[in-house]
Amino acid sequence: MAGPSPNARFHAHVYYEPDGRGEAQALRDALQGLTGPDGERVVAHAGALRDGKVGPHPISQFEIHFFARDLPLVSPMLEAAGLRVLIHPLTDDDLADHTSLGRWIGEPLELDLSVLDPPGLNQGVARFGKNDF
To answer: What's the CA gap between 106 and 33, in Å, rounded?
Structure first.
């Protein structure tokens, strides 16, 4: 089965505990400055650190936006960080994005799926590369 289009949009949610906020901030800063072989920025948007529950996310997190073509650059950094991470494509199906289409690094968290957008309407699509919550 073929992988996603190189231009497919992705989010990663990086979760942290209060005592790991500094590590999360350092990772966010590194991801925000990451450039590809062509010298272009890899991360289209690095969201603010959100201390506490936000949206479906039960603990503190920040999100990044990037394209599928940059998964080989982003994934190793996320894996090496030692934090929990949910990587998922950004489609019109918010529920599938956060469940069956997502991939966890580290121990998965139980998300509050009740707050996700209904199928066919995913507000994350419109805010890709612009802003987080």
So the answer is: 24
Contacts of residue 124, defined as CB under 8 A and 6 or more positions apart, other chains included, come to 11, 90, 94, 97, 117
The CA distance from 86 to 88, in Å, is: 6
Among candidates 77, 105, 82, which has minimal Cα distance to 17? 82
Look up the CATH number of domain 9-127. Answer: 3.30.70.1240
Threshold 0.70, pTM exceeds? yes
Confidence at residue 68, expressed as pLDDT on a 0 to 100 scale: 96
CB 88 within 8 A of CB 105: no
Q: Where are the domains of the chain?
A: 9-127
Distance, in Å, from the CA atom of 131 to the CA atom of 124, rounded to the nearest integer, reads 9
